[in-house]
């Protein structure tokens, strides 16, 4: 099954629970007939930890002295900039509670014929055996979690249970239960220790037949034909009016609610598909069995589908966190934050090409909602106008608060450009140009560099100082230094992009001249693109981050077509890069860059490290480390981008077909891809060549490039052309054959 996955037994660990979500609420479904648990999540659920009101410290007065010291050769000067402040993590993401439908013991010991599955096309998770069936989905139409349980003579206890792993000892917990003509209303109010804030979960239980009574902390139903639970979570201060919350829950039956939700989810999920020719024999295997065959084409197919499904399901109110939209434990690694110096952009890397504007819109909501905080960062830390993005956020505050000697993330100035790039790609795919909101943010990014770039190197180039390459350091210097390659790339891109899209701005000409005065990238003694373009700084190659290859991916400022010598140096840097601690995001970041540099063997190796490293749970959500260590969405969400980049790449003026196809996947089909010159694309490839169908939505003139050993042999006009002249509304068929 391409568009779903299944298991022959219930989940035992919460990490293996099947997932559903609408970008606000998330559900984790165990599918256990005896104790039918659904963990309830919501994007707003972050626990107050004292960081919520922190503002960036006023450090700008010392910036000039720091810059002078670094340029004078003091390699440790930055260690005192912001020193003495404790490391404060953002508010940690946590689960709300789990709904439990506990049935009478001893009646359902046998599970022959059991099946648990998730349908990616609808977002519905089902579990069944014999007469029992439990179905769960998270509604895009009504913003509720809906569960429907059927059985013959259903007898069970239903509670909202807050006792999840890692829950603080001093939560203030209150419950309410009210019987209704349809069944019952349940509520769970949880207050955070030492805070006026808390959250409330409300559930309407609709019971068909039988009896309902209050029992313990919930209700008991006896002899029912079916049960429907409709649940919603709200977070805030004080005690909300439970009557109003219950009244706001939809009252329709499960089928009606599903019918209202299904087309919204199916339309979004169904825009893009990926199939491999040799996958059919194993498509019907359960996911856990496929995961034991890392070389199976069916596994890559299913993980591609699962990655798009989970990415879509976790994006709405906000983009995906480190854990997507789901966790079953209050002690989430790295606070379950949005880590913005690599992970977030990697997770949403497929959004534009894989036709998921919902994901980009969620990312835009995060960015636009925090621009005022980013302005505070620029002013307080650097005495500049414009914006500086933080390296971590909980989704509520965009203020920088990560001050640490070993990871001085407060020195990272490239974040705004890095985080605006996915929005720019989305604009290119859709309208062709940024809207007013994005243009305003691009201007703010350029204004920062207009103020910040105030020092020169000995050759008269502008120096980016202080500078930091996440999360690495030179082998012979401290972390904060001069001219990190990522910082140079971000500054140049921010300045030129703002000038291009705001040509009438009074500073547009100045921005172009500042960009021209930035230093060139440095090629080191190993022939590799250096991570720091500053004489004397030595490389630290064994690291999970590839920040210095930002000009390759996603910027395309270094590529094999326009800058072949720099592309060779970037490829050498990729060859020398280690994997450090085997983080999943490091492997897939390597795959994305290798695809841009037309290296299919390195794409294969990176994918192989993830597929064969035991990174995926039975849920097909991933882990940060091998052996399913630390629940984390990086691999699950990034994998579709790596697949697409190996098959299709585009810029506003270029299309690259089959640049880096792994040898293990010699034939297949990719449908519904969006290009950055405004065309939909379907691609079919095999050992004999390939066919691509372009459906332009606007006129474009595009340079066509193909993978090694391929040549354009025929177009819809009957003859090869390069560049391609595309006309809105006129399909174009391209045929590639062996050279």
TrEMBL record:
> Can you give the residue ranges of the Glycosyl hydrolase family 95 N-terminal domain?
9-231
Keyword line: Hydrolase
| Residue span(s) of domain Alpha fucosidase A-like C-terminal | 649-714
Q: Identify the residues that the record assigns to the Glycosyl hydrolase family 95 catalytic domain, covering every copy.
A: 254-647
User: What molecular functions are annotated in GO for this chain?
Assistant: hydrolase activity
Per the record, the domain of life is Bacteria
Report any Pfam family annotated for this entry.
Glyco_hyd_65N_2
Record field: transmembrane: none
The record's PANTHER family line, in alphabetical order, gives:
ALPHA-L-FUCOSIDASE 2 (PTHR31084)
Which protein are we looking at? Glycoside hydrolase N-terminal domain-containing protein
Question: Where does this protein come from, organism-wise?
Answer: Streptomyces mutomycini
